[in-house]
Design the sequence.
């Protein structure tokens, strides 16, 4: 059964803690990645401190965005890294006590290298399009969705599919990541709970 993974809005937003709390109360969530936007580090750390307790009360894992050095100090459960980040150092510093996941995967070779490195999950479908790449299918040589399905069929490390446009198809992955578009809905908690019920 596919489990849900949330990606928050990338910058602090008024009332985000309450909206997130409602989503967590209405739907079982496995993990929440606290996205980092363009604000200062201090603003992000404040944002994370505000959200982490509610996430953990809901028995979900609270993941920081690309800041492994702050995981323990904030009491988070782990970190989400980009494929080109300081991944090997992060794994050495945080595992096995903390979760280390990775995204922005662009090829089969890269996915295998990251899987062998000892990460806890690989996220597919999150590589941002560039000016010559209008959608995710052009970002890799085989397409983001096909890459995800290939990974799931051949490897044991769990896969997360980053939904685009609130699509609830996990592409065969163990986890489906929702957001940040989810938060633009008038009632994110009711929308997500309703879609989960409809898919059962």
Sequence:
């Amino acid at each position: 059964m596919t489990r849900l993974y949330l990606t928050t809005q990338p910058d602090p937003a008024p009332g985000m803690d309450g909206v997130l709390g409602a989503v967590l109360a209405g739907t079982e969530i496995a993990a929440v990645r606290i996205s980092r936007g363009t604000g200062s580090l201090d603003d992000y750390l404040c944002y994370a401190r505000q959200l982490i307790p509610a996430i953990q009360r809901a028995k979900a894992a609270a993941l920081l965005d690309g800041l492994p050095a702050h995981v323990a100090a904030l009491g988070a459960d782990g970190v989400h890294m980009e494929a080109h980040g300081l991944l090997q150092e992060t794994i050495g510093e945080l595992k096995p006590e903390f979760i280390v996941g990775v995204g922005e995967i662009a090829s089969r070779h890269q996915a295998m290298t990251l899987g062998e490195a000892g990460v806890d999950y690989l996220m597919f479908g999150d590589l941002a399009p560039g000016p010559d790449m209008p959608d995710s299918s052009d970002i890799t040589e085989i397409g983001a969705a096909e890459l995800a399905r290939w990974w799931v069929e051949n490897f044991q490390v769990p896969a997360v599919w980053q939904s685009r446009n609130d699509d609830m198809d996990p592409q065969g992955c163990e986890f489906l990541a929702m957001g940040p578009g989810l938060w633009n809905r008038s009632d994110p908690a009711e929308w997500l709970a309703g879609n989960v019920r409809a898919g059962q």
Remarks:
- The beta strands are 3-7, 31-33, 61-65, 78-82, 99-103, 121-124, 159-162, 175-178.
- The first strand starts at residue 3 and ends at 7.
